[in-house]
């Protein structure tokens, strides 16, 4: 996108103040991307007043596009007491990944994001193509209570892990074939390789977040949180696969 804009507006592709600063185009693009609200499939708008509302996973307000008034309205979806903060959801109905949350708003959802997914390179290999794991066996290894909590959205990491995996609904016994056992091993290995590819461990990133560092840059804190959430999802997915393998 930046290359296309650079070609269209070459005069804006110069640093604002020295070589180590953003260009005017980059600054403008960042402002628009961070503040533009999607009103419908084809319409975005910059609504400064609405941008003052913070995000909450259980919002008490929402926004809507009033065509008759040619306005964007902030409306309550539950009772809001006088002096109580009005909060909205920054995620869409189908969910917004932590990557997009980080790109657009500079923060991620801690404690797991059900919209996140893991891309498994193993699924592109010839030996694993078309393979799938049994949903019924997943339910058995998790137990009824955990499975119900997951279906109710109360275990975000587990939701994201399950939706990342290739699953099937049939009565075929788990691990019945060499191909399925091979698939499980490849998926576990894939999680391990992705974790090893990070420059730090879960323990190190957790320690960084919990450390009492005076005047820490909030952007660095967001980076640690983003990386930690990704690491935890990979770890939870690997744990689920090991349970399935037993």
From TrEMBL:
GO MF terms listed in the record are: protein-lysine N-methyltransferase activity
InterPro entries linked to this entry: Rubisco_LSMT_subst-bd_sf, SET_dom, SET_dom_sf, SETD3_SETD6_MTase
- The UniProt record lists the SET domain at 39-90
* Gene Ontology biological-process annotations: methylation
UniProt key word Magnesium:
no
Q: Which UniProt keywords apply?
A: Methyltransferase, S-adenosyl-L-methionine, Transferase
Pfam families tied to this protein? SET
Residue ranges annotated as coiled coil are none
Q: Which domain of life is it from?
A: Eukaryota
Supply the name of the protein: SET domain-containing protein
């Amino acid at each position: 996108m930046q290359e296309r804009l650079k070609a269209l507006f070459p005069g804006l592709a110069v640093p604002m103040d020295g070589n180590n600063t953003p260009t005017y185009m980059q600054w403008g693009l960042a402002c628009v991307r961070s503040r533009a609200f999607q009103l419908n499939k084809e319409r975005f708008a910059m609504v400064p007043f609405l941008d003052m509302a913070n995000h909450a996973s259980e919002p008490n307000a929402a926004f809507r596009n009033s065509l008759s008034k040619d306005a964007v309205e902030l409306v309550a979806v539950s009772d809001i007491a006088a002096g109580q903060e009005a909060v909205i959801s920054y995620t869409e109905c189908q969910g917004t990944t932590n990557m997009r949350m980080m790109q657009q708003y500079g923060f991620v959802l801690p404690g797991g994001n059900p919209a996140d997914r893991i891309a498994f390179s193993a699924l592109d290999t010839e030996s694993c193509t078309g393979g799938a794991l049994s949903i019924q066996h997943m339910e058995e290894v998790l137990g009824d209570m955990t499975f119900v909590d997951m279906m109710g959205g109360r275990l975000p990491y587990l939701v994201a892990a399950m939706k990342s995996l290739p699953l099937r609904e049939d009565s075929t016994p788990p691990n019945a074939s060499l191909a399925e056992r091979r698939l499980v091993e490849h998926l576990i290995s894939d999680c391990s390789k992705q974790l090893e590819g990070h420059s730090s461990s879960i323990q190190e990133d957790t320690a960084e977040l919990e450390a009492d560092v005076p005047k820490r840059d909030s952007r660095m804190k967001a980076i640690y949180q983003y990386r930690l959430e990704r690491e935890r999802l990979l770890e939870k997915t690997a744990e689920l696969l090991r349970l399935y393998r037993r």
